[in-house]
Amino acid sequence: MNKAFHSSGDVIADRRADYARMLAEGGDLAAAAELMEQALELAPDWAAGWDLLGGFEEKRGNLAQAISAWRRLEALDDEGVFGARLKLAAHNAAAADEGTAVSYVEALFDQYAPQFEQALVGKLGYRVPEMLDDMVEAEMARLGIEGFDKAVDLGCGTGLMGSLLRKKVGFLEGVDISAAMIAETARKGIYDSLQKAELVAALNARRAEADLMTAADVFIYCGALQPVLAALVPALKPGGLVAFSLEAHDGPEALFLRPSLRYAHGVAATRDALVVAGLEVLRFETATLRFDRGAPIIGILVVAQKPPVELTAANDGSAGGDVAA
């Protein structure tokens, strides 16, 4: 599905929208917005049209008009495919939900799938899978792990992470919310199994199943980290590893929603969430994840471990006595 190009049902409105896109691409955002308003006079209930208008107004710095367009969009888009609520929340015009906007994320990556790797790796300098893989291999060497019986690559996308994991995993499963992404990676033959599912729902269906889980630039769409980790930890085998990335910020907030509609997580709050989830932090680093409009996006890279059975038993209080410092 390509949500941005849904027809209005009115040929003239569609033509005006096409011309408005051309004007916007050429840098004339004021003319694009004006033409888009004319198109919406012909098709006032066209959700994709309001989404386009809001985007034009935002890019030209006309935030009040963008918010007005997104409010109209929110009223028309019952499924949340266009992410109107997220756009309003990112500009402090609505309360932000702290969970995944499932319909929006699914539609976004269904649309993005064909050009995903070219855009992300070729244009934005994306190296998160390589960085996470290097960290996992370093911990494997330190812990004496020769390989993993089963790994689950959450938000597997087109297999950028999975292709690096393949050589050290017996059974590799990919999970993604987007059917188009699943179709792209299925053609590569990287994974032993692929599942289309929302992340937390997929995790809740598993118990002590994998000895490695990865999530490269996935939790940035999930909001609050603790509910995700609360679902993830029971799905890991005792002693299993999890490796993931987040976009970072240095403020006191646990997270906030950026205009990019991705969540940035606080460094201190992320450490706290890992402790609350019962994970031992093995590696915790900040790094440049990629570039966005020429600016570096700073993020957090984490490798953590679920305590082995013997540690859990030793620390659950059943043995009695005090533990010396």
TrEMBL record:
Coiled coil: none annotated. It comes from the Bacteria. Residues 152-241 form the Methyltransferase type domain. It holds the Pfam family Methyltransf_12. InterPro entries: Methyltransf_12, SAM-dependent_MTases_sf, TPR-like_helical_dom_sf. This is Biotin biosynthesis protein BioC. It comes from Devosia equisanguinis. The lineage of its organism: Bacteria, Pseudomonadati, Pseudomonadota, Alphaproteobacteria, Hyphomicrobiales.
